[in-house]
Amino acid sequence: MALTVPHSSEGSPHAPSAPRRVASAVAAVLSGTLLAPAPASDAAPDCDTYTHANAPDLGMAACGDPIGQGQTFRAAVTCGRAPDVKGAWATVGRGGHEVSRGRCARFGSGVGANGVDERPV
């Protein structure tokens, strides 16, 4: 990859020197490559989260393993006006599908949000 340095301000007393311009360009290129976000892991299971339609205190995580690497996961349920809960760990086998459930306390206001905790097998 060739770097081009503009020459329009070379005669200006405020223009940076050529080595400084090149160093700045190299730093910009390197920072763009080194700080790019990492792609999502291929080993992550394919998960959907739900709140049960007839039981607003029940949060669920349903996960499948489309690529054939075993994964363990559990539902992470945020409860309104009650302590948050975690579902039981479930292991998804090759091509399988499993569900983990977490139930908020009855005195709360139900499920506020659902998430998934994951770990490789």
Outline the structure in words.
With 121 residues, the protein is mainly beta. The chain has a domain at 46-120. The protein has 1 helix and 7 strands, in the order H-E-E-E-E-E-E-E. Strands 3, 4, 5 and 7 form a 4-stranded antiparallel sheet that branches. The longest helix is centred in the first third of the chain and has 17 residues, at 18-34. The two termini are 42 Å apart. Residues 1-10 and 22-40 have low confidence and may be disordered.
Topology:
Blueprint (H helix, E strand, L loop, with lengths): L17 H17 L11 E6 L6 E7 L6 E9 L5 E2 L3 E3 L4 E7 L7 E10 L1
Antiparallel strand pairs: 1-2, 2-6, 3-4, 3-5, 3-7
Largest sheet: 4 strands, antiparallel
Specify the helix fraction band.
10-25%
Question: What is the count of helical runs?
Answer: 1
Low-confidence stretches: 1-10, 22-40
Distance linking N and C termini = 42 Å
- Rg over CA atoms, rounded to whole Å, is 25 Å
Shape descriptor: elongated
Secondary-structure content class? mainly beta
Question: How many strands in all?
Answer: 7
H-E order: HEEEEEEE
Mean pLDDT: 76
Protein name: Secreted protein
Organism: Nocardiopsis tropica
Biased composition (Polar residues): 1-11
Region (Disordered): 1-20
Short description:
The protein is mainly beta and 121 residues long.
Keywords, separated by commas or semicolons:
mainly beta; three-stranded antiparallel β-sheet; elongated; 121 residues; 14% helix; 1 helix
